Write a sequence for this structure.
């Protein structure tokens, strides 16, 4: 619980904020004009940055890119929040949902001096201005939208929909932080965004910070009107009151009237937030979900831009979304409009002779790290403290011999996570769509309830105001909250169904892109990794049926670059514990961990597991019969818990029935050991690859995911034609766990037959064994067909 | 415009509906009891289906699966809608958002007789009852949730979030249809669902049918309470009024009171829908978006189930979500509770001596195709009429020689689609997140405006009440609407950004699973294919930057089975026209078409294009230098527009500078020709594969997507080690189009060097040519680095 200023101070500050002096208005307006000027400069100019002479066609960029429409609104808000920070000392960050208004946010960082600190070539002088303008959306430059390169941002302005999930994630366990989240009315149409307003139902005013959403309605998106922009304002108000907010509305285009009204509205919002937090933190909270303020800001799209062009209305319409004036180089009239437009901001008042922002403009910026563009919360690696982790060995399953124990592997992980919660009450959270118990992670509830700010009843279990386990039936919220939590420097895990992990696949992709780009920027400190745990897997959704059977997320993560993507397939509890420990310590990766939650055979002692995971892949001597031979007759490889069991079972059948066949069993925990080192940093050396897989013996590879993944991973290894991969081939239904392996041709019997079909040398008895396997499979078919008639116990599934 | 009954008739019907007679109540209640009984039977029983003797442990299934909690609510609604249909003749279908309540919907189809019609073994007698119970969630049986096997459904109850998008899609251009869409309060937490309430902002009461959403609040999901279930009811009302609905609330658990109240509420909703439609269709509409009714139904979770078990409250809590009584075989007390519970429905009144539903129960069902389980709208292939398609050759770009024309390929497709709109005003729609013009498909606006029911202003262009082009900034809505439109038998296309197609990737996966399963059911008629067009591609988002650069959806579609998945990469306008024509005629596939919207070189005349597309892949003699040699020195293969241009350019460089090298150029339009015929029905024969790629010569393959895709596709073809694939390797930024190919090592110069490095035979001059390529790439690097300094025109990108 963080202390907040006393009520009197807050109320005095709120009142002062609500009534800016004439000097303050002048400063706000100067900063805003400077920002708008720089925004337009980025879109249009490659020379003559301060219009110290008349604009000429050659001053104009050859290709005009960027988004003007949303920018003046974004910068107006930025200016006013900056003033708020200066007056109150409030820590704040700024997330731009309409991040395509990138130039406004870049300009803000530039005016605050942060941009030049980070990128010295973009200095606060005429040369720097030129570079600022030229780099924008240009080859070798920066993207047109808010991106990893933008100081102060934890939110890419590309794919829309995630500004509120990032915002809510950023303030969890961050009691002093206020995150300003601007939501555009275009983005507001997306499903993920609409599903994220409910974040306040999970935010605790005592130990969490606050999100101030500002819904910026400017009526239009790229090519037409928006639903919220064109709805009756009473409906808009009703909608957000329904979401639980106190709606504050402000709108217009008159100046300085809008400055006065927006300042008053922002002050009111801040005052309400402080009052909510003060009440909660002073013990005066009635326990009801606060009605957090939300601002609806209505201002014209492209505000202060050219009203009409060629007789057509531009400002206030979708025509100002991107570049409101086209063909400026060739159209003298457009060139003249641009010059008038830019001069309307009176740049001569805003920049000094050297080209630097004048003191009035610079003076709006808060000090040091309070500048939103310099906030360490938006460069969360700076604030990251390693987790206080227990020894994962303490949660081990005792495994005296391979297959000698049976356990729900994720239950042990749950116990580990419970103690991570206990020992890190300020920097670890688990995010899960309503399945923590189902995933056997329920031990965490011994350390923390679920967070919930709506009504709680006496009958509820493990749920309450102080809870920090995050359950909401939305993969988008879970994933996005964790991203926001990670990017502001804290640790976590997202656990979900394997098939439904595809719901948020695009978030996984986009977060990976962010992490990859961040690694190229020395000023971006590494952040905790995004840990994704898939525990209800394709192979064990036999009871739920085909729609629940899909290992697609592995395939998605495999498309990402080696500097961010990791995929782990621990075959049992002890390997899972070792992998989880590794992932919780790692930074700036996407760690995908796949293991089922059902009771399963256990293979390795904890020390064996740790050694196996350190290698990432290894020979399981005890399972094979090759006795260290350089070249066995066949290699049985496996990655994934179910297929590992089938592989060990196949090897056992071969040992018993074809003892002279030299069989090697290789288990792969870290999938990224398979590619060549030049394709992934985890890729094992050629020597090691040959040690495991030889360079000529056929390999029967049983894989948890789609077989094609292995084919692509081993590309470039010696003689890849010899890899025969069994995996999930989209054969699913409601059936038995074992039948899932039969339908997908990855059962122990299929693997034995594959081994016989591909072995380098066949001992006597191979033909008979193949016939025996076919017989077994035929019996299985009969069993399945007859199943409905007698409905016996599901056959036990053992070695 | 469809006629609707006159006002007097409607009002009389509404009044009659609102006041069910005692006999009607008795019938509703009997049907509901029968349904609940069958639901519980499916979850628990494998014998003694009608409790004609005392329940014994051996009557109980060995594994208890299924979801009771939502089921009584689902069946209550079903009963009342059935009565409405019988009384009014309304055509209706029923989509169960909480489709995990599968047994209730299966039981409904069974009570209506449809189930036995389709699956004769599940007959309306004791044997059939036994099979009905045993098949449920059992190996060899049916999934636990509403699935493809459930008659009357177009909506899988697995992955949550899409019930409203399917519902709204089903009623577009379907003026006589009423779709009942039950939304569970768990599903209501997902982003896609929250983003789909706005469907009414796009539904025209004249030419579209109506969706009646019924938000079923039972307070809990699998393991805890729901946000909407625990919100202040005033907030819930406010939320949906904000979305634009007229909210009708009904709740409680008293009987027959709930029957009376629900009947009255449903009648009121129906009356309002008819009034809205009548007003619109009679010309009395004021043009404002109607306030369509929405019912909020509050009933206890697991209603009519065991109140408490082992002293713990079950009904009304999350504990009744799945199986409220566990361990029934071994716990005599639980067995007794189950028997009391099942007998509470008085099965002896509901089923006759043979085990068939009695006349009172059967009598609730509407006649024939009006039964919701038998509606042809839910088996849309029955209603599908082929599109009236123009000759795609009429839209051709004139290409006198390869590379002899330059055009925006998708613009021609837009012209074709315009005429498809014009000639099929009742059965074709384009769905696009606000980018129809940006995608160069704007010609469609000559035939139809965008649909929009919110306020339209004089300044708006191509938008209005009668519009049928669907633009909403939500991939989830676009994708899901099209699915609903397809599954009810109509045709369409979804056009979106390539990178952001991943937003709805999970919908693509789930729809593919639906189509695949449907093909196994003879009674499911084939439906129009889901056509997905990606037009702002990874390679040409040079200006937008890395977050917009990702060819992930190809990878996702490749994981689907060959019986549903198709991927087309037309290299120019004429091949695009031929591919589009093929896709618009096809049935029950997912057709993914990838081609950029920017001006590009054109290669093939329309007849050449048609021939090339018919083969799916072929040798481009004019581009190569092998003159029909059996084995050239190198094969340059390509799939995708940009990489095709680079490949042709590389071949040209080789022809000019290394004329003695025998180079073959192969272009692949239909990616699925690459796998073996046993892996995909489009897979080319071994002979044809060898004709194109030889069986020994190295292949340099330039691919639009991730290189690994080609490695997995050619698996099993002769000597796959010889394939060197260049493709998108997650190297992106804001740059020039050509630099995108350089960064990803797929530029013409890289391809030339690859050719030289891998050719079977090297003519004199090869070393010099490699050095020349390296020089070209070095110049390019310098050019990019210096670019910010001079910012010249972007270099033209030509052959």
């Amino acid at each position: 619980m963080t202390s907040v200023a006393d009520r009197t101070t807050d109320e005095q500050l709120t009142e002062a904020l609500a009534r800016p002096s004439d000097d303050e208005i002048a400063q706000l307006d100067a900063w805003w004009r400077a920002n708008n000027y720089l925004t337009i400069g980025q879109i249009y100019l490659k020379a003559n940055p301060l219009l110290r002479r008349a604009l000429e066609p050659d001053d104009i960029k050859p290709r005009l890119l960027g988004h003007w429409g949303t920018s003046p609104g974004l910068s107006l808000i930025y200016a006013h929040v900056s003033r708020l920070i200066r007056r109150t000392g409030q820590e704040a960050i700024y997330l731009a949902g309409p991040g395509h208004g990138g130039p406004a946010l870049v300009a803000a960082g530039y005016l605050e001096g942060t941009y030049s600190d980070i990128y010295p070539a973009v200095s606060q002088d005429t040369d720097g201005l030129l570079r600022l303008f030229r780099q924008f959306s240009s080859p070798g430059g920066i993207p047109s939208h808010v991106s990893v390169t933008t100081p102060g941002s934890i939110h890419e302005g590309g794919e829309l929909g995630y500004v509120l999930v990032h915002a809510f994630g950023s303030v969890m366990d961050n009691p002093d932080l206020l995150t300003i989240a601007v939501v555009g009315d275009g983005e507001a149409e997306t499903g993920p965004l609409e599903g994220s307003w409910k974040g306040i139902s999970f935010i605790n005013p005592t130990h969490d910070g606050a999100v101030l959403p500002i819904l910026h309605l400017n009526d239009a998106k790229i090519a037409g009107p928006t639903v919220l922009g064109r709805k009756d304002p009473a409906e808009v108000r009703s909608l957000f009151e329904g979401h639980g907010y106190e709606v504050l509305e402000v709108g217009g285009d008159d100046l300085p009237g809008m400055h006065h009204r927006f300042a008053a509205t922002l002050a009111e919002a801040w005052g309400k937030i402080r009052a909510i937090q003060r009440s909660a933190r002073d013990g005066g909270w009635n326990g009801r979900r606060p009605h957090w303020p939300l601002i609806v800001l209505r201002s014209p799209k492209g505000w202060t831009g050219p009203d009409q062009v060629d007789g057509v209305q531009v400002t206030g319409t979708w025509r100002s979304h991107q570049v409101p004036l086209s063909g400026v180089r060739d159209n003298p009239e457009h060139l003249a409009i641009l010059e008038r437009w830019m001069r309307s901001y009176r740049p001569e008042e805003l920049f000094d002779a050297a080209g630097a922002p004048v003191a009035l403009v610079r003076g709006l910026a808060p000090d040091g790290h309070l500048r939103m563009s310099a906030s360490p919360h938006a460069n969360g690696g700076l604030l990251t403290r390693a987790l206080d982790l227990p020894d994962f060995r303490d949660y081990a399953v005792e495994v005296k011999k391979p297959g000698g124990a049976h356990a729900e592997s994720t239950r042990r992980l749950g116990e580990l996570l419970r103690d991570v919660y206990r020992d890190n009450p300020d920097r670890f959270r688990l995010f899960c769509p309503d399945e923590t118990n189902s995933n056997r992670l329920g031990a965490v509830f011994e350390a923390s309830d679920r967070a919930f700010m709506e009504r709680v009843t006496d009958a509820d279990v493990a749920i309450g105001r102080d809870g920090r386990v995050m359950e909401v039936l939305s993969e988008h919220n879970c994933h996005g909250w964790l991203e926001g939590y990670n990017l502001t420097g804290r640790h976590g895990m997202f656990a979900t169904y394997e098939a439904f992990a595809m719901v948020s696949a695009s978030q996984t992709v986009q977060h990976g892109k962010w992490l990859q780009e961040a690694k190229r920027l020395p000023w971006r400190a590494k952040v905790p990794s995004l840990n994704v745990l898939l525990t209800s897997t394709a192979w064990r959704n036999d009871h739920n049926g085909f729609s629940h059977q899909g290992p697609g997320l592995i395939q998605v993560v495999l498309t990402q670059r080696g500097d961010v993507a990791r995929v782990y397939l621990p075959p049992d509890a002890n390997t899972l514990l070792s992998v989880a420990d590794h992932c919780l310590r790692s930074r700036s990766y996407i760690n995908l961990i796949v293991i089922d939650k059902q009771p399963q055979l256990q293979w390795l002692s904890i020390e064996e597991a740790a050694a196996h995971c350190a290698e990432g892949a290894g020979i399981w001597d005890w399972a094979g019969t090759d006795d260290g031979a350089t070249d066995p007759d066949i290699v049985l490889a496996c990655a994934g818990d179910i297929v590992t069991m089938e592989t060990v079972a196949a090897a056992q059948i071969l040992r018993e029935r074809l003892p002279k066949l030299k069989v090697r069993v290789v288990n792969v925990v870290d999938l990224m050991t398979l590619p060549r080192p030049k394709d992934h940093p985890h890729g094992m050396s050629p020597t090691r690859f040959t040690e495991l897989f030889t360079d000529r013996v056929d390999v029967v590879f049983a894989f948890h995911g789609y077989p094609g993944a292995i084919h692509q991973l081993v590309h470039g290894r010696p003689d890849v034609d010899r890899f025969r991969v069994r995996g999930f081939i989209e054969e699913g239904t409601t059936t038995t766990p074992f039948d899932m392996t039969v339908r997908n041709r990855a059962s122990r019997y299929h693997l034995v037959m594959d081994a016989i079909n591909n072995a380098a040398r066949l001992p006597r008895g191979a033909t008979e064994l193949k016939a025996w396997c076919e017989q077994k499979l035929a019996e299985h078919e009969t069993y399945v067909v007859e199943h409905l008639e007698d409905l016996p116990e599901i056959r036990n599934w053992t070695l």
In short: Residues 617-790 of chain B form a domain with the Rossmann fold fold (CATH 3.40.50.920). Chain B touches chain A through 133 residues (CB under 8 Å). Confidence is low (pLDDT under 50) at residues 789-799 of chain B. Chain B is about 35% helix and 15% strand.
